[in-house]
User: Fold this.
Amino acid sequence: MSTYRFRKRSAVGGLAADITAVAMRSGPTSHYATQISGKLWMEPPASPLHWRDTAWMLYGLSPHSKSLNRLYPQGLTVKVENLSFPTSDYVAEVAAFAMEGWVREEFNLPPANICIEYDATDRRYIFSWDKAMPFSDETSDIPISHI
Assistant:
């Protein structure tokens, strides 16, 4: 079990989240686990979370799903023990960055192509995601449209 501390400083303070998780090499461990891709699963913490925090943690695992499925063809479950963050200045997207950082450190993987920057002119955070908008099928061959 290990903890990753995500920190992003900005002109208005910054964003932070800590995630503690353990990697279990053998497929889903409980009926609470959610499949990411192939035999990669995530089990959320026992403590209640907002659905958006859980969804963003799942997304944070997804950029590394091909590598993890290749490294652990027998299956891998990431069991999240805890996600903690300051209640001020928190946005749920930070859970993705905390999870992605945990995965990078735990498995010695290169960084995913996701980033967060603070735009001082518009006074807002700008999130850049890997291949497509999160939670979309834009990278599949299925023609879709969101209106």
